[in-house]
Amino acid sequence: MKSWSNRVxxxxxxxxxxxxxVVSGRPSSAQGSVEWLFNGRDWxxxxxxxxxxxxxxxxxxxxxxxxGIIAVSGQKFAFVSTDKDYENYRxxxxxxWGQKKWPPRENAVRDAGILYxxxxxxxxxxxxxxxxxxxxxxxxxxxxxxxxxxxxxxxVLGKTYEGGRVVKWSDHEKPTGEWNHVEVVAKGAKIWHWxxxxxxxxxxxxxxxxxRINLQSEGAEVYYRNVKxxxxx
Length: 233
Known about the structure:
Layout: H1 4-17, E1 34-36, E2 46-50, E3 54-55, E4 63-66, E5 69-72, E6 78-82, E7 89-101, E8 111-119, E9 127-134, E10 141-144, E11 153-156, E12 159-162, E13 164-166, E14 180-187, E15 190-195, E16 198-203, E17 212-217, E18 220-231
Antiparallel strand pairs: 1-18, 2-3, 2-6, 4-5, 5-18, 6-17, 7-14, 7-18, 8-9, 8-17, 9-10, 10-13, 11-12, 14-15, 15-16
């Protein structure tokens, strides 16, 4: 098994080869227009999905808007989704953990995530790539299978993954209760994960390059804000 230092060095080498379209894993300010996926006031451009209830039906109030923040109780596995598909972008947002946890994860670490390049009919969970938001694991990748069992593929540090988890190479999450800033850069078949200003996963040859973006509710109280997407040329 490679040491963390070797993994970071290898990651830097991959980044150096990734192409001029993204500089150091981030787009330049001149790359494209900015779109606020959450306007801070209402669900324009978004919808909620709760299994057993469907779109925009939330009898338990799992998703609420509070002072410009998406407040998620975590009581059921569910998500907020974009209406539109997106490709070639830099997505950024802030998140922090609340206190509540719910079955079946009441005794587990707090868990949520950003599913991106989501395809297919709404379900928990769609075929997608995931920026894992979980205590101690922020920046991990999950390659989530579709309803038909097909699994996304991604190359990381010279290895091809098909479905399942890809572990980040460094940990930059702040203590529970503090705001964290996370970024996903998706440019063609290349992706970068950033946590609090540090790149901790790079992938190439992604089999998914376009789709909806979901913010998860997964058994833990969590808050999202400043959900912004910058389009890349």
